[in-house]
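WARN no homologs supplied; continuing
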Amino acid sequence: MTTAQAATGRTVTTNIPARLDRLPWSRWHWTIVIGLGTVWILDGLEVTVVGNIASRLSEPDSGLPITSGEVTGIAAALYVAGACVGALFWGRLTDIWGRKKLFMVTLAVYLAATALTAVSFDTWWFLLFRFLTGFGIGGEYAAINSAIDELIPAHYRGRVDLMINGSFWLGAVGGSLLSILALNTDIFAANVGWRLTFALGAVLALVILLVRRHVPESPRWLMIHGRDGEAERIVSSIERRVAEEKGEELPPAEGEITIHQRRSVTFLEIARTVFSDYRKRATLGFALFIGQAFLYNAITFGFGAILTTFFDVPSGNTGYYFAVIAVGNFFGPLLLGKLFDTVGRRVMISSTYLLSGLLLFATAWLFDRGSLSAGTLTACWCAVLFFASAGASSAYLTVSEVFPMETRAMSIAFFYALGTAAGGISGPLLFADLTGTGKVGDTVLAFQIGAALMCVAGVVAALLAVNAERRSLEDIAKPLTAAATKARSKSKSKSGSQSATRGDQQDSRATRTV
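OK structure emitted
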């Protein structure tokens, strides 16, 4: 099976997307999941460890002159700010230079920054490398989600994407348990244990970096950027491996697309595409990211403080409670993920956001009445975050599949950065301030704000979510370089009033260029 090419200058007709989408699940796909998806485990490890060791870092014998508020507030906000800046910076380069080059570079940045965090000797050093650690992780979000969606077959894309993004919580479980060990002064000195947690993150990143070398560049990206010969070799190699594993010939690929190859897309084209042609999808992306970012960043960085402040849980034991919550979070995407490919995106995205928001309102009410203990609060959070985790993961899935190929990494970066800046920077600062007062009413207010934003996002999803399940990426959003797209742009002056809704009209029908 070869790529059908009718090259006239830089115009190419290809069936590479169809060949990738018709592949059955195989060991090769598991290689992609392991090589790319495991980075979220590192992110979960980072965020959870910092939240759980905040009280230890603020103790006089920690070796670091920093307060608990600076750890859960300023350091947390700087980590998220670094992730936002990194997403935008690396996201643009991912669309220009390719997925593979950037997911290697960004992981190396994370590795170096977290290793240097382990040797912090002063507050400014710790804060600086928390920012740079986030800077590397932010780039990972754009590069990894782009590569995964472009390599995974359409029938499995939803569940795989949710499972990978949900693996953040495996890292959270590890971070919780690791913090228990690290904070045990019978095993490690108070100024050593917390450093080892960051050092372990660097070691894990090095292992992932070695595995990731075997993940190929996205053939879809190569095809559009004038490297169709390399794309053909990669896809043919994948087909041979899968066919040998299955012991039978692969089914024929149906459908071709004609594109005008080009090296890059300008910021103006990206902005016009996202905010004019796809403005409904842009609204959806903002709502999903702001809702989940505020909820998750606020609660993740503040949960330990709630346990110690309101329930007198020793600082060395908060990891046990967080480990339980993290398990619930992981099982959400794991158990619900398949439904996003079968029941559909619109129903599942809206219901997971709405259910988590309503359950959070109920938790706030019980907390305000004084009806909860540390154990029952943890149980409530497990229920809330079981649904919220699947919803939050679907936010990344949504923005990575509903915009054109040439803007994919930048779109992920843009929505992640703005949504996280709104909820992820203000969230930890506000939440640390509210829980720091020791007043029940202030913490209840923080819960209610997070619940309200999740419910609003759920309503927006019910109205605007795209029916993207089991559809090719090129069907969901036609590439800007597709021949028909370019032809239409020539007559834009005659049909300007229609261009603003053209992208959103694709939500209800397939529009592959043949």
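Confidence is low (pLDDT under 50) at residues 1-9, 485-502, 508-514.
OK
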